[in-house]
Amino acid sequence: MSKILIVEDDANINRALCIRLRAAGYEVISAEDGYLGLSVALQRRPDLMLLDISMPAGGGLSIVERLREHPDAPEIPFVVLTASKREEYRQEAATLGAGGYFEKPYRSEELVAEIQRVLALAASPAVNPAA
Hints:
Oligomer: single chain
Mean pLDDT: 92
Number of domains: 1
CATH superfamily: Response regulator
CATH class: Alpha Beta
Low-confidence stretches: none
């Protein structure tokens, strides 16, 4: 069972994502801000992170940047969720290697399908020689 870390500051969205992803068969852990998300990612080493970009205490993309600076951190694939329509966020996420990018509101079926696709790619030996 793949482990997904959700980092989302909106409690209702966080809860809904947890319920939907557990129903899809994933182990789910969550954090309410970027600082806690970084700590959880380092401790629990999820298979995928679902990250909100704009949060009061550290945005989702800063988690990716900080993980890459950490010597013991694994390369964790990630999918972005955001309420922002700013193109520069989309470009920054792509530059950092986001597996997917969703604007809120999102369709949960499409999000789950994208998570499945990103996890399958990450598990592929051609993409991840350590797998």
